[in-house]
Amino acid sequence: MSPGTLARLAVAGNRTDLARMVLTALSAALATLVVLAALTVLAIEKPPGPEGTQSEQYTNALLREPGLRGGTAFALLLLTIPVLALAGQCARLGAPARDRRLAALRLAGATPGQVTRLAALETGLASLLGALAGLAGYLVGRTLLHRPDGDGRLALPTDVLPAVPALAVVVLALPAIAALATAVMLRGVTTTPLGVVRRAGRTGAPRPWPALLVGLGVLAAALFEPVRESLGPALDAWLALVVLVVAISAVLGVVLGTGTISYLVGRLLHRYASSPARLLAARRLTDDPWAGSRTFAALLAALVFGAGAAAFRAWFQLRDQLEREQNQVAGFADFQPDSFYLRTMDLVDLAVALAVTVAAAGLIVMVVEGISTRRRAYAALVATGVPRTTIGTSILWQVLAPVVPAVLSALGAGYVIGRMLMGDIASGGRTEEVCRASAELCQDPVARQNYVEFVQVDQVVSAPGVPLGQLALLGGGAVVAVLATVGVGLLFLRSNTAVEELRAT
Amino acid sequence: MSTPHVLLGLLASGTKHGYELKRAHDQRLPQARPLAFGQVYATLGRLLRDGLVTPAGQDRLAGPDRMAYALTEQGRATLDQWLGTVEPPIPYVNSTLFAKVVVALLVADTDRARGYLIAQRRAHTERLRELTALKTAPSATVADIVGADYAITHLDADLRWLQTTLERVADWHREVHS
Amino acid sequence: MTQLHARGLVKSYGPTPALRGLTLDIAEGEIVAVTGPSGCGKSTLLHCLAGILRPDAGEVTWRGHRIDTWSEAARSRLRRTEFGVLFQFGHLVAELTGAENVALPLLLAGTGRRAARTAALNWLDRLGVAELADVRPGEMSGGQQQRCAIARALVTEPRVLFADEPTGALDTVTGEQLLTHLVRLAGEQRTAVVLVTHEPRIAAYADREIVMRDGVIDHTGLGLDAPLAGGLR
Question: Most C-beta atoms within 10 A of its C-beta, which of A477, C39, C118, C172?
């Protein structure tokens, strides 16, 4: 095939194909923006001076302190996970139709290689356009946001630019990875000209082994503190890696476990289903339990991180509180502990909220996709008098029934791991200053000398409380986001169940 | 239809009297035109003359209607040859139906031709319906079904032709009268 | 007695007219075949009669009630209870088993699960496919799917069954077997059938035939009320 033919066939498709390309481009643009932001943080040069010299031109400590910039960049890169999950979900949009189109090309005589190249090119081209748009957005954005405040300090590192080769690598590597991923995903599709037999390999009920992964994550997290104490600071770098592995295995466990949850919920629902809507939902859940895993992957990943972050925040809050109490006893009433970590946690929460939003966008794609692949059957049901609300309710059940337990398990796993990693806070166990006078006298540096005593305080181990409020907010927010997306998806139900859908053969 | 060959075929399973042959014919070929006794005996006479069948049994002198017939070697060979020969697939369109529509277009206008086609179509459909009822009756035998299928398929073909011709009447009339 | 009555039906898709003032009566228990070339408006007529589509002009009355002005919900309820619908492809719900597909309309009507399943099994048996009760549509042949679809359409004992090319995707023998079942079962409960088809041999299962052309009735085929040839046009 000549490159021209290849390109023309790659972009030939219907509206859904166009929507997929637009969404692919959009997620590529988002990913590019995030990666470029991370690179920019890394591009900040350490000013000359001793180790730890801060880049004073920034208002934010995350950018100012060289020790924190690595973590900031890492957090930004973590944000690409939900974005990439979104891209993966977009790739499934209209996939049955595309698979049929590719199978038709195979029937017309195209080789498996040509078809794979075609599909990869489609994704690659869309991603390249998206990446270029992302780059443009980045370049425009950094000029627009370059607003020094009164002291000439910047909120964002708009004064540095990553090296041009690095920019080029990002813009080219993202589409290449996307194209490669498409080619890998299509391995099973292009081998036969008679369409896809995707379900052939599907076995019965999912096994509950993903729970083991979560357990492994929790166990590793529980061992984290004792191991660190016994090993000392020498192996800190390795321990960071362990944290990453723990987090990934927990996320994987929760996401895969959703398949099991979907299946069990489906079975339960089927046993007690009395309405057609619940029957439909139950059958769909047991039929393809992994659909839940695919649909909610990004959302659940975000929730695991969010719950972990909530545990961290609770720990920092407790530490602040203990410090404040201690200072009060010592007579430094107006002493404010450094809230730097809490502010950082705010940023993490913001990132989690962003990730949930992106994941919810992916969910819309999945819901609409699910409706449009079943539109014939739905249209026939509507024609035979099944109310659209029944179909809508079944979709709602199908999404909500597994998502509630899945969200709970994600929150549980994330929180427990976060809690384990941080451990308890021991205070006391040594002599401490106590100021026995009124606050005014204690405040006075000279006067307080007369009232201060040194007292042996028993060691108290305090455990941070469960931040139920924040966890509920996270879980509730996620479920509300899911509800909203299903609502948006259901708007497409009407057009997809029009009687015209029955005419085409 | 080749009546001599059908009779030879019916005799292949054993000796039969003339009236037995007629009954077997009507039973095996339910949708065919029933055979008249006269035709049976006339055909048997020709077969006898050509040496394809031979009188059999004791009462050979009791007259033609009491005579039983058997297949000769030559008769079996003729039957084999007939069965082995492929029928030419309609060498000529030889249908009154077709001729009538052509003539109707020549001597009358499109409405007349259409009227004829519609009336004919209705008659065909009515017959098709009778056959369908016959065939779907719970008492129908396989012979009934196969026979009805043969007729139904031909009527179906005629009906499709009538329908497409109805669509083409105007064009056809223009061509005939240009 | 006329049950379903359509008068002066007009329906267009954009600039393309599908029905151009068509009038038709369906009596109780009668089987009416609607034939005609592709694009003559057969399916559109069926959809208008069944209350799936609203005609642009004209009216459809069911037992004296004008249904084309009803809300979508009211027409849905009518289709669920008094009407049955059957399409070229069974359009069964892929995730549900044969029995569950058949039981679906009953469940919608509020029948208990056990009773609905019993009725579904009974109907599958009447169509000679009792063995499909726990089989998914994906594992059925086209003819088996259509039999399940007929069972689903008849399980509520509708008064009118609308069948749009029900044998279109089947071979001759399978299609005829299907029609035999359909006609027998509809007859047993006096369900009228509107049968859209382009095959003369399928139309022959009907009591009456109307032949459509360009959105109107061109002529009638079968039936006592068929006018003579000279009286047409």
Answer: A477
